[in-house]
Amino acid sequence: MTAINTQMPEREQIAGRPLAAVLGLLTIFGPISMDLYLPVLPALTAELQSTTSVAQLTITACLLGLAIGQVIAGPLSDRFGRRVPLLIGVLAYTATSALCALAPTVETLIAVRFVQGLAGAVGIVIAQAAGRDVYSGGKLLRYYGRLTVLGGLAAIVGPVIGGQLAAVTDWRGVFLFLAAIGVAILVASLAVFRETLPGSRRITGGLSHTVRDFRRLLADRVFVGAVLITGFTYSAIFAYLSGATYILQGMYGLSPQGYSFAFGLNSLGFMVFGFIAGRLAERWSEKATLVLGLLMTLSGALGLLATALLHLPLIAIVLSLFTMVSGVAVTSPPATSLALKDYPDLAGTASSLLGLARFAFGGLAAPLVGIAGANNPVPFGIVAFVSAVAAALCIGLIRVRAVNRLDHHF
Predict the structure, then answer these.
(1) 1, part of any domain
(2) pLDDT one-digit tens code per residue, 218-245
(3) How far apart, in whole angstroms, are the C-alpha atoms of residue 376 and residue 374?
């Protein structure tokens, strides 16, 4: 452990802007895979003669792929390094994006979207793990804040581009655009990304060693609390991603372009508040920033439930969404830092569990939103509110473990 800590300042010096930019690009696999095609999801549903709930399984399949893929890629990157798994993952993502465009049925699309998620997961987990390789302390918090900002920026750009693409092409063209993005990221990774995990710091051993690593992480109450908070808050986010396109377009009459700009407003909040949270957690405290984010998330989710039950106007749902999404952004940097900062030797494995919670919880929540049909917003409000309450309850795990650490330190 001492050897790792003494190497960190040196590795921070070699983490230049090109590497930071590529690591940031890797974080867009999740939001761009989801957000770019949301404006054309209703059209996809009609063309493939599907129902709302079945079409939403294309979201769920991608989310589950993103979750499971991280559990596989994280431990592998701790054992074999970051670069080779990354390049394989980006190449596979590009190929599966092109295959999505050729899907003849919704069932085929669901299957290929799952594989697309598996491939995209590699970039996401390596962005977090490689950041832990080269940053520590305040720089690590700022780095995770930047990842949140870039995720929000991708969420802004994705629906806007998707809405504009909908005017000139169909949903198949949107997936071809995703393949082009994969090619661009592959070229950038080949040109810039160098190995951030030297052989001397890699984990050795087989499956039994990986299982022991997972047990070590799951025995840490702070880690478990941070992972659960991330999972539950992202359940609310992915309920929003799955349901908002039907509600805002179907119930409130927005066009795909209008929806993309309304979505962009909420994503702007995610980006701005994610940036603020990275700075706030460093100067204030991780736990206090986490509590603030949970309060915002809970307030916004309560507003969504009230809007659904009372049939409030468009402005009410937009403000509630903005508050909830911004609250999730505030929780993200401190939760990620709390989960990873004590495990420089297991950064990939720890990142994989964080990603598993984020996307698996979200994947389970997404189809529940459409369970009563496209024109009923009540399930959306219920899922968002229950997810926010569950996340808030998990703060107790953070408090108990943090107090124990403080007592031990003094």
Answers:
(1) no
(2) 999 999 999 999 999 989 988 887 777 7
(3) 6
Residue 255 backbone zone (phi > 0: left; psi -120 to 50: alpha; other: beta): beta
Q: Look up tokens 């190995």; give the residue.
A: 195
Q: What is the DSSP string of 166-220?
A: HHHS-HHHHHHHHHHHHHHHHHHHHHH----S-GGGS----HHHHHHHHHHHHT-
The pair of three-digit structure tokens given for residue 311, joined into one six-digit string: 């049939």
**Residue 312: pLDDT band with limits 50, 70, 90:** confident
Using CB atoms within 10 Å of the CB of residue 407, give its burial: 0 to 12 exposed, 13 to 18 middle, 19+ buried: exposed
Residue 333 lies in a domain: yes
Of 28-32, 277-281, 370-374, which gets the smallest average pLDDT? 370-374
Q: Per the confidence metrics, is the pTM higher than 0.85? A: no
What sign does the dihedral 69-64-26-3 (CA atoms) show? negative
Q: What is the residue whose two structure tokens read 């409000």?
A: 381
Cα gap 56→370, rounded to integer Å: 8
- Report if residue 212 sits inside a domain: yes
Report the sign of the C-alpha dihedral through residues 56, 61, 64, 70, in that order: negative
Closest to 42 (Cα-Cα) out of 171, 133, 158? 171
Cβ–Cβ contacts within 10 Å for residue 8, how many? 18
| CA distances, 68 to each of 122, 139, 354, 363 (Å) | 10, 29, 11, 11
Range of the domain at 28: 7-409
Provide the domain count of the chain: 1
What is the rounded distance in angstroms from the CA atom of residue 141 to the CA atom of residue 90? 26
